[in-house]
Design brief:
The chain contains 1 helix and 6 strands, in the order E-E-H-E-E-E-E.
Length: 70
């Protein structure tokens, strides 16, 4: 997915990605989340937001929204 952002005279086009981290048997695997996000960062992706959908009061996933310049 693509979007644009204007700052002054320049317009930058971005592509976007949503990464989902599911709740495992022992909770969220934070070390694996960091490993994946570090790898995406090396590819030029930047995390811009996170969401934690829930079923009732319990979180079922962590969604991380990322963008990078095209």
């Amino acid at each position: 997915r693509y979007g644009t952002e204007s700052t002054g005279d320049m317009t930058t086009t971005f592509e976007h990605k949503v990464v989902s981290f599911g709740l495992g048997w022992k909770g969220f695997d934070h070390a694996e989340m960091e490993r994946q996000l570090d790898e995406l960062g090396r590819q030029g992706w930047e995390a811009v937001a996170s969401l934690q959908p829930s079923l009732g009061a319990a979180a079922t996933d962590i969604l991380v929204l990322l963008k990078r310049a095209r």
